[in-house]
Structures are given as C-alpha cells and as structure tokens.
Design brief:
Serine Threonine Protein Phosphatase 5, Tetratricopeptide repeat; eight-stranded mixed sheet; alpha+beta; Dendritic_Spine_Reg/Scaffold; globular; Ankyrin_rpt
C-alpha cells in the first residue's frame, strides 16, 4: 500500500519526493542520500486519512540504514506526530515495534522518538509490540522508560493485553518494571490478576504477585476477587497460590463467596481447596443462601458431604425460609435427602409460607422422598399459612401414590383443621381426581365438612361440572338438602357455574327444589347471562316439586330496559339476602368480562412495557433524556376503557412531561442541600411553590385523530427533593394495606425520579404559584395494582367520565385514581376477591360521596373536596366548581350508587374481549408524540429510532424531481421495516422507469404478512409479565414498522404513480394540516392490485381487510377502488 500510494502521488508531489518515499520503502540508502537534500524528508503522503513520511516507510520495513540516513537528514523521529497537537496517528517507532524491528526501534529511541505516542485507538508502541509478541522490543521499550501503565481507549494496558493472551515472558518483563501498576482496571473493572485468575494462568499470576505486588484481594467493579474467579472456574492450583499469598477466602461478590461460587458450579476440588484455606462454610449471600443450600439445590452429594464434615449447619434457612432439606425435597434429589437426614437435618422446619420438606415433596409427587420423610418421622399435618397440608397439596395436584402413603402413615384426611377451602377432599373434588376422592372417602374423610357453604366438596364439584365426582360424593352421604332459596347447595353451585348437566345428575339422584328456590335460581341465571340458560331453566323446571305457573317462570329480577335510565324511584329492590347474592353474581360477571377484555395484571404489564419502549424511542429521536411519557398511557390501566389492546381511547391522550434545563429549585425548610443558592430557594405551601411569573395552564395540547391519539405536552421545573410523601409516613405505613414491596419501590422512586412542578395553581393564584407533581409516584402505584384493584379503577373511571361527567361538571379521572389509591391503602388483601367487586365499587363511590359532602360546611369555597393522596397538606378540587356545584355532584353520585347494577350492566356491554392471539396494537412511528424531524444521514448500522427519519427522507426524495436513486438509503433499513423498505424500492424502480424490476419485487412480496401488533397472551393465573426487552425483541423480529405519521409542510406527491395512488398515498391526517399518514402495507397491496397480480391473494386480502378492526382511510380507499365484490364493499361501508 505504501508502494502504490507513492506511485499514485508521484505526479502531484513531484518526482523527488515520490522517489524518496520509494527509496525508503525499498531501503535504498544511496538513493536516499542523493535525494534527502532535494526534498522535504518529512513531507507526508496520505494513506486512509493518516500521514506517512519516508521515515514511516523505512521503519515499517526495518530498513535500519535507511532510517539512519533519514535521521541524519534531520527527519522528525516522530514522523510529524506530536502530543501537543492532540492528533493521534501511528509514529515510525510504532511501525517498527509492530514489525519487531529491534535495531530500528533502538535507533529511533536514540533519536528521541517518543515511545508513548498512541495511534487512533490509543495504542502505544509498547502495546503493539505486546500484540505481536515481540519480547525483545518490549524489553527495549521498557528500558527506555516507555509508560507501561498507558491505557488505550477501552482502558486496557499492555499488561492486561499480555495476560489475556497468555504471554508469560512478556508479563514477567512488564511486571518487573519498577513503574508498573498491576492493579489498574480496564473498562470492565478487572485487573491483570483478575484476567489471570479467570484464565487459570498460574505462572502469570505468580509473576504479577511476586514481581509487581498485585493485590490478591482487589475487587473488580462487580465485586469479584481473583480468588472468586479462580473458584468459579475450578482453577485449583491458582486457588492454592492465591490463598498462600493471603487471599481472603470469604470476600464476596454480591454476597457470594468463593466457596459458594465453587459449590454452585459443582467444582468439588475447588471446594476442598477452599475448605483447607478455612473458608467460612456458613457464609450467606444477600438472600441468606449458604454453600450447603446451593449444593443441595444442584444435587451435588460430594460437595454437600464435604461441607457437612466441615461444620455446615444443615438447618440454616435462606431468605424465604427454605432449608437445604427443603430444596432437595422440592427438586427430587433423593441421595441428597439421605445425606441430610443422616446428618440430623430437621424435617419440620417451615418456610416463610409455612411449607415443610414433606409439603414440597408431596406437592411434586416425589414418592421415594415422601417415604423417607415419613420414616424419620416428619410431622404429617403441619400447615401452610393458607391451612394447606401435605395431604391437601397432594390431593390438589393428583398424586395418588403420595396420598396412599400419607393415609397409611395416619395423616389427617381432613387437612388438620376446619378450614374447608384447604380440605383434601374439596381440593381433589375441585380438580377432578376421582381415585383420590375415593381413597379419601375410604379413609373416612368428612364428606360434609363445611356443608351448605361454597367451600364444601360437593359444591366445588358441582360448580365446575365434575359429574362423576358429584355422584361419588352424594352416594357417600354428601348433604344436598336446600335449607332456603339462598343457601349454598349443589343445585345453587350448578346454576352459578352454568352446569345444566350437573342439574340433571342431581335430579337423577332425587334432588327436588321448591317453587321459591326455582324462582330464585332463575333470577341468578339471568343475572349471570349464562350461555346455556335455556337448558338450565329446563332442568330447574323438571326438578321443581310443584307445578310452576307462567308468572313464576318469568325472571325474578325485573327488566330495566323499559325504565327511565337514571331514575332510582322506579327500581324494585329484591329482599336483602337476594340482593347480596345478586351483587356477588354481578361481581363475578364484571370481573370475568373485564378480564376477558384484558384488564388484568399481565395485560397491564404489556401496556407499561410498550409505553416504556415508546418513551425510549422518543428520547432517542429528540436527543433529550429528560422527557417522559406519563399519564394513563404509561400508568397501564386507564388508556382505554373498552379493551387493553394498545389503542388509546378517543377521550384519552398521551401525556408528555419535559423538564426545563437549568438548576433545580430548592424547597425552603425541606431541602437538605448544603450549597443551595438563595435565588433558587422557594417557599412550599400546601402542594404548591410560590413562584410568580408563570401561566397557570399546565399543558400544551395537540389534537388527536382517528389514527393518532391526542398529546398533552407539559413543561416542568425540577425540585431538589420531594415534600413529605403521605403513604410513606410512619403513621400511615403502620395501618397501610399497600404491600411492603410497593412501599419500598415508592421509596426508591423518590430518589430515582425527580420531583418537579408544573404550570398549575389553586383558584385565584394563577401566575403566582406552581403545583408540585407526583406523577412518577402515581405511575408506580398504578403499575403495582393487582387485577382486582385495576378493575376497580377502570370501572370507577368509566363511571366518572362516561356517566357522572355527562350529568354534572367537576369530577375528573384524577379523582377516581385518588379514590382507588385510598381503597388500596385501606382495604385488607383478603377483601380483594372477584365476588366483592360490586361491594368495593359501592364503597369507593360512597367514599367519593362522603368527600364531596364534607366540603359543604367548610369555610372555603374554592371547590376542594379531599386530601391529595401523596401530599397530605394539599387538596383535590372540583374542576371549575363551587359549593353549589358540590351539592349537584353529590346528588348525581347518590343516583349513580342507586343505579349501580344497571350502570355496570351498561359498562359490561361496552367491553370488547381481547383477540384469541392476544393482539396488542403498537405502531411507534404512528403514535410517537413528536414527529418533527431534522434530516441527518445515519452513520453505521441503523438504530431502530432512525428508521423514521430514513423512511421520511426517502418519501421526500421520491416526490422531488431528478433521477437519483434512494437505494443506498434503503439498504440501511432493517427487516423489521421490510414492508416499508420493499415498498420504497418498488417506488424507486418506478420513478427510474424500471417497471420490470418493480413488478418482480411486487411478485416476491405477494404472500408477505406484516405484524398487526404484538401477539402475547399470558396463561390464565400465571405470574408471567411482559417486559421492555420482550417488546423490543418482538418489534425487531417481525415486520413491525409499516405505519407512519410524518410531518411535511407540503404533501409529497409522487407524480410517476397512477393518479389514484398518488392522491391517496400519503394522505393528510385530520388533526393537523402538515401531518401525513402512510400505510406501507396498504400501499404494497395497492401496487400489486394495480399490476393485476394473483386474484386469489387479492380476494383473501379483501376479506381480511373488511373485517379488520383497525381499518384506516388508505385501506378503505384501496378496497373501494379495487374490490369487485359489491356486497363486501356495501357491508364495509355500513360500518362507517
């Protein structure tokens, strides 16, 4: 390359210089002597943007004589490179060191060449000599006082490099230098000795310790010592060496000691060496886990035995209360259990939830282990906190052999208590384990435990529909009598579960019901909206022992369809006991409908993960980290009151908070900052700061459209700290029902997410005060809601926005959120059940009513009605209201409480179930809150957030005159934007007049399918939660980015397309004149239809598009223009 560059520059540099360069390359001393006085010996040529002189050329080839000749001609020994200029290029000595030319390096050193000048990557001549393992050059540079501690751009020294490559002699040479610092850490926080320990390089480690005094106890940035790494990778000789030089065997990494690490990875020899070094066998991790526990968990009998011999305590329990015996029984390690039993491990230790070793062995059906524990003997009837015993859990999980063992050992077949919910017979009946039911009955289990309640075995079997179990239980004496119409009999259970076949079984077994009971059960069936209501009614009729006249056959709950909506005076109330049961039934129905519509913890987690991804894209697009997505879109529960499928309710928006740059404000009397300046200290009063000069309008609204949600932009000023946060104050924590884990997260968020103030003020204080915002704490608490708590909020928000808000002004969604928070704080966990949802809603509305009524007699008239949940000294107000408005709100609230059953029925009718695939619509570049773009050509691999600017630029270029291709830009687009990329390629071909290539590409994409959204549905009852990584991975793995809203002052018109297509793509959005929409999937289909491709595929697309819930204007336009099926088009138009 030197030779070629010299030849290419001959004409532009002149013959003398190019000849000198070539002479240096070839080592032609005589020619150098002739030319050195005729040209500038330091004049460089450019290779790959770097300057190279004749001295570079001679040094790189090791031409010592040529180097000497050039130096005698006063050539710059550093090749024109100087540390003072800040430019970093390879010097002549760098090239000589790389080539291992020792004599040349020495000559350059004698000429005062700087041995520490780095190249563009921060690598010095010493570093490059190590790279190519030139030992003699390394020694020469060290003797010349080259900086052995010099770090390159990734914080790596020559010593790090030598150790990582296993160059023992070079390590010894560097370690012997009197200036070396062997404890320097590279960018990942590891020293040279860490590298040696991890690689098992014994002699290198010894050189580092003996020659340079490396610290054997130095911790890396993640807390690992060299001994920890050696133990982790089973380097036993190194363990011996490190402990010989006094390495501490108990220094831990994140609480994990070396012996724990060795036990965890099954390194028995390493464990033995550490035991010899007196390692603490009872050292615990952050989770109180011991080496013995981890050995038991992983089934390592040899390690377990060694630890016990060394004095490990077999009864140590980790943070959740599990012992080594517990985890061995859970995992099914029989040999481990034998060793622990022999070592006198206590089999009756209970974990945090009360589980014992026998419990978890029975739970998993490890019969051999169960038998060993029974022989110890272990206590058979110890209960979990939920009253479940080993017999109960084995019954639930269907482990018949385990049940036989426990019965033979005289375990209590009734579960050891009167808690029928956890009785073995009920659990076996509920889960349809016939053999176990029969075995328990044979062992004289109480078939009538909790008779006439929903916890009885026969009730559970009837409710779920296990007909064989019902027969067995009834024949075994289960009580099926009906004491009253409202009792909890098997008949009631069958009706509540919609099990008409069970009713038939019960009728066959001789069960009869009274007219009154039949009337009651018909009403129950009506409330539950059973799918098989006709069959249920038929069976009820045949079970009734008196003839039922036509009047009784009508439902007992009157139809409200003919009543004036909202007039409680016309409502007939059933008696109290019937009402309670009806409320319970409606609660179950509401819970079921809301769950089907996606209002669950799992689905809410997906909404939250999508919001976090959108926030990340927004930050990257704006190059601003202090911008946050908040409000209902981010809080996960209230973004849509119909279905949790990613779409934003037409009456909701996406809220954006952007912090104004500058110093934070300090709260007088609260701030603890030592250097707070007087001019930035503000007075805090009742949830506000005194800060005159700002408007009271908190948000800058941007209108939404059918395609794109509205956006509220809020500017905020940082505060240095939060005022006292109510739910974290001791007097409230002591009585709080908010889980401790959530309170801890709130505490953490106080230091993680900045407190701030926004442009809002109390009545009469506009321009003088700013309101303290707790939006991040609200987001945390909203994201921590359980399924029932979230459903309560959604129902409250529906009532406040859709019912109350349309009758009277004042209440807003924020009031519903605050009431929800108060309910979460005040309501015990056991009351959050599906059967109680109606009651919880009623209590919430009464709580809101009481707050409004309490404001009547107060002296203030500014509309305040309740305390702020997080700021106890602040208040919430009725928006734009006064005392008279408060009285109107109270009247409406009383009406809503009276009409609650009808209103909830109305609400349920609006709910839409989540699709079977769990589709979640998420098109980031359609809903991105800020779509303004400054064009900047992307460098390197395209990042996901850059897809938008590349697509937008391509659309703009296609609309402009000229024949320049956009192919180079399109090649940057990844497969997750395939439809956009391929569609733009087609347009590029068409613009350039290459229709054949365009048609080929259209043909290739006939059967391609885009991702309509994220398909994710957690299994019912699972703890699975969506994560940000999951959303990112889904977006990357699918064709996800094909819907775009873009900003153009003028609509881009692609005049090379047919008129219809150029008029429709892109189209103007309804919210702003400069916003344009482009659906690349619709455009691809449109182009394929225009070129008359496969009619079967076209018809398939027409059918699917006609039923698409997300049908947009462009898809509709393509349907109307190309679809030949007039009936399909007519049906489609009828929807609009």
């Amino acid at each position: 390359r030197f030779n070629n560059c010299a030849k290419m520059t001959e004409e532009c540099l002149g013959n003398h210089h190019s000849s000198l360069m070539l002479a240096a390359l070839r080592g032609n001393v005589s020619q150098i002597v002739q030319l050195r006085n005729c040209t500038d010996v330091d004049l460089p040529i450019d290779i790959d943007g770097r300057p190279y002189t004749a001295l570079h050329a001679a040094a790189s080839h090791g031409h010592l004589a040529a180097v000497t000749a050039l130096l005698e001609a006063q050539a710059d020994a550093n090749g024109g490179v100087s540390a003072s200029t800040g430019c970093r290029y390879p010097t002549p000595i760098y090239w000589a060191a790389m080539g291992g030319h020792e004599a040349t390096v020495e000559a350059l050193l004698l000429a005062q060449a700087d041995p520490d000048l780095p190249d563009q990557d921060g690598q010095t001549p010493l570093y490059v000599a190590v790279t190519f393992r030139h030992l003699s050059v390394v020694k020469l540079l060290i003797s010349a006082q080259a900086n052995v501690n010099f770090k390159d751009d990734v914080e790596t020294t020559a010593l790090h490099l030598a150790v990582s490559r296993g160059y023992t002699e070079i390590v010894a040479a560097i370690s012997g230098s009197n200036q070396v610092n062997s404890d320097q850490k590279q960018i990942q926080g590891a020293s040279a000795l860490h590298f040696a320990a991890q690689m098992g390089e014994l002699f290198i480690a010894l050189s580092l310790i003996r020659l340079s005094g490396a610290d054997v106890n130095l911790e890396s940035d993640v807390g690992a010592t060299p001994l920890f790494l050696a133990a982790q990778d089973n380097h036993c000789e190194l363990i011996d060496a490190l402990t010989f030089f006094l390495a501490d065997p108990d220094l831990s990494r994140n609480g994990q000691s070396p012996i724990y690490s060795a036990a965890k990875f099954g390194h028995s020899r390493a464990v033995d060496r550490l035991l010899r070094a007196q390692a603490d066998v009872r050292h615990v991790t952050r989770y109180s886990t011991t080496p013995l526990y981890i050995a038991a968990q992983n089934g390592r009998k040899d390690i377990l035995t060694a630890l016990i011999k060394a004095g490990a305590n077999t009864d140590d329990q980790q943070k959740q209360g599990a012992s080594a015996l517990y985890i061995a029984c859970q995992k099914g390690h029989a040999a481990i259990v034998d060793v622990l039993i022999k070592a006198q491990a206590n089999p009756d230790l209970q974990a945090a939830e009360g589980e014992t070793a026998l419990f978890v062995a029975s739970q998993n059906g490890h019969n051999g282990i169960v038998n060993k524990l029974i022989s110890v003997p272990a206590a058979l009837d110890l209960q979990r906190i939920s009253d479940l015993t080993a017999m109960g859990i084995a019954s639930q999980n269907g482990h018949f052999t385990t049940i036989q063992m426990l019965i033979k050992a005289n375990a209590d077949v009734n579960g050891g208590s009167n808690q029928a919910n956890s009785a073995p017979l009920r659990l076996a009946s509920e889960f349809n384990h016939i053999e176990i039911v029969q075995a328990l009955l044979d062992a004289r289990a109480d078939v009538n435990l909790a008779r006439h309640s929903s916890s009885s075995a026969v009730y559970s079997a009837a409710f779920i529909g296990h007909s064989d179990i019902v027969r067995i239980l009834v024949k075994s004496g289960a009580d099926i009598t009906i004491d009253s119409p409202e009792s909890f009999s098997p008949v009631h259970a069958a009706v509540a579960g919609g099990q008409w076949r069970i009713l038939r079984v019960l009728r066959e077994l001789g069960v009869q019901i009274s007219v009154e009971t039949c009337e009651f059960l018909r009403g129950l069936a009506l409330v539950l909206c059973l799918a098989d209501s006709e069959a249920v009614n038929r069976e009820l009729t045949q079970m009734t022992f008196l003839e039922i006249d036509s009047e009784i056959k009508s439902p007992i709950i009157p139809s409200r369809s003919n009543q004036s909506f909202g007039n409680p005076s016309q409502t007939e109330h059933p008696d109290a006991s019937t009402l309670v049961l009806n409320q319970s039934a409606q609660s179950l129905q509401l819970h079921s409908k809301l769950s089907a519509a996606g209002f669950t913890e799992q689905r809410a987690s997906l909404q939250g993960a999508a919001a976090d991804v959108l926030e990340h894209i927004l930050r990257l697009r704006t190059s601003y980290d202090d911008i946050f997505i908040v409000g209902s879109y981010s809080e996960t529960w209230g973004n849509n009151l119909v279905c949790v499928d990613g779409r934003t309710d037409s009456e909701s928006d996406i809220d954006i908070t952007r912090f104004v740059q500058g110093r934070p404000l300090h709260l007088k009397g609260i701030c603890k900052c030592p250097l707070a300046e007087t001019d930035s200290t503000v007075e805090y009063v009742a949830g506000h700061i005194i800060f005159p000069g700002y408007s009271a309008n908190p948000a800058e609204p941007m209108f939404g459209s059918m395609l794109r949600p509205a956006v509220d932009r809020v500017s905020a000023f940082r505060l240095c700290c939060y005022p006292p946060i109510g739910p974290l104050q001791l007097h409230r924590v002591a009585k709080s029902n908010i889980p401790n884990a959530v309170l801890q997260l709130l505490t953490r968020d106080i230091s993680t997410f900045p407190c701030h103030v926004v442009h809002a003020a109390p009545q009469g204080q506009a321009g003088n005060q700013l309101r303290v915002s707790t939006t991040f704490l609200e987001r945390r608490l909203m994201r921590s809601l359980s399924t029932l708590q979230g459903q309560l909020f959604v129902a409250l928000k529906f009532l406040v926005k859709k019912i109350i808000g349309r009758r009277v002004h004042g209440l807003k969604a924020y009031h519903a959120k605050t009431i929800t928070f108060r309910m979460v704080e005040e309501t015990p966990a056991e009351q959050w059940t599906p059967q109680n949802l109606f009651d919880l809603l009623q209590r919430s509305l009464n709580m809101l009513l009481n707050s409004v009524q309490s404001s009547y007699g107060q002296d203030y008239d500014d509309g305040r009605i309740m305390e702020h949940f997080f700021l106890s000294d602040a208040h919430l107000y009725l928006k734009g209201a006064d005392k008279s408005t408060a009285q109107e709100v109270a009247i409406v609230l009383r009406e809503v409480i009276d009409e609650l059953p009808e209103l909830l029925t109305k609400f349920m009718k609006t709910l839409i179930p989540v699709s079977s695939a769990g589709l979640f619509y998420f098109h980031p570049f359609l809903i991105l809150p800020r779509i303004d773009a400054q064009w900047e050509y992307p460098v390197g691999k395209l990042q996901l957030h850059e897809i938008y600017i590349v697509v937008r630029q391509c659309v703009l270029l296609l609309s402009q005159r000229g024949k320049d291709s956009i192919a180079s830009l399109l090649e940057k687009l990844p497969d997750c934007s395939r439809s956009a990329r391929q569609c733009l390629k087609v347009l590029d071909f068409l613009k350039l007049g290459d229709q054949a290539s365009a048609e080929r590409l259209l043909l290739d994409n006939r059967s391609h399918k885009v991702s309509q959204g994220i398909e994710w549905k957690a299994a019912e009852g699972s703890d699975e939660r969506a994560s940000v990584d999951m959303v990112w991975n889904y977006l990357k793995a699918n064709d996800s980015f094909w819907k775009f809203s873009m900003e153009f002052r003028e609509r881009p018109v692609m005049k090379f397309l047919p008129t219809f297509i150029s008029e429709v793509f892109p189209c103007q959005m309804s919210n702003y004149k400069s916003y344009r929409y482009l659906n690349f999937n619709a455009l691809m289909r449109c182009l394929q239809l225009e070129f008359d491709f496969d009619s079967d595929l076209a018809n398939d697309w027409f059918q699917k598009t006609a039923t698409n819930e997300e049908l947009d204007d462009q898809e509709l336009a393509v349907m109307l223009h190309y679809c030949p099926d007039t009936d399909l088009v007519s049906g489609l138009l009828s929807k609009f």
